[in-house]
Amino acid sequence: DADVTQTPRNRITKTGKRIMLECSQTKGHDRMYWYRQDPGLGLRLIYYSFDVKDINKGEISDGYSVSRQAQAKFSLSLESAIPNQTALYFCATSASGEPEAFFGQGTRLTVV
Amino acid sequence: AQSVTQLGSHVSVSEGALVLLRCNYSSSVPPYLFWYVQYPNQGLQLLLKYTTGATLVKGINGFEAEFKKSETSFHLTKPSAHMSDAAEYFCAVARTSGNTPLVFGKGTRLSVIA
């Protein structure tokens, strides 16, 4: 089983719909992250959480929200999806004080 | 603020040739540096990292990188490319305190020609 699991792996949704992407981890790490990958733009940070009660905005948080339900779970929501949110989304984790991140397999989201 | 510049969005090499992927960073404090690889339809996998100590770092699959502070560079090399090396490669930087998320470059797609 993967250490960092993202669900769903693929999703097509309509403009204006609310959608949630989920991430769970078995690595026991305190820190969790959501990144977005677009061709030619690399990975950009959306939100991150250093522990259950900590939420921080990243570089591109507008249009997104997150919830840290437990140490092992970190979900990303698009309240009203728009086509330019079509991208590959990655969840990642790291241990406290250690910057090395471990990534999930990604969720490919298409907004039509 | 920290940033990473990867020179060349696409690099093409022949099988058996040297692979050189370039990464320059900007950081106001000593950095931690990373190279990740992404194979098609997969997540990112750590290739190697520099934290402290030896500036020449060896990673998986025969890759290595050298931290050059004077040049603010962390270029990735492999002496002989294999077809299986075709992937996208990302350079990333973080503060040595370990209290900041990784900042990634825009990636370099490596093609290997038979």
Q: Which labels suit this protein?
A:
heterodimer; A: 112 residues; mainly beta; 7-stranded mixed sheet; 4-stranded antiparallel sheet; 0% helix; 54% strand; B: 114 residues; 6-stranded mixed sheet; 5-stranded antiparallel sheet; globular
Summarize the structure.
The complex is a heterodimer of chains A (112) and B (114). With 112 residues, chain A is mostly beta strands.
Structural overview:
The complex is a heterodimer of chains A (112) and B (114). By secondary structure, chain A is mainly beta. Helices cover 0% and strands 54% of the residues of chain A. Chain A has strands at 4-7, 10-13, 19-25, 31-38, 42-49, 56-57, 64-70, 73-78, 87-94, 102-103, 107-111. In chain A, strands 2, 4, 5, 6, 9, 10 and 11 form a seven-stranded mixed sheet that branches. A four-stranded antiparallel sheet of chain A has the order 1-3-8-7, with no helix packed on it. Chain B is mainly β and 114 residues long. Helix content of chain B is 0%, strand content 56%. Chain B is built from no helices and eleven strands. In chain B, the strands form two sheets. In chain B, strands 2, 4, 5, 9, 10 and 11 form a six-stranded mixed sheet that branches. In chain B, strands 1-3-8-7-6 form a five-stranded antiparallel sheet, with no helix packed on it. In chain B, a hairpin with a 5-residue loop joins strand 6 (56-58) and strand 7 (64-68). Chain B starts with a strand and ends with a strand. The interface between A and B is medium-sized, with 25 and 25 residues.
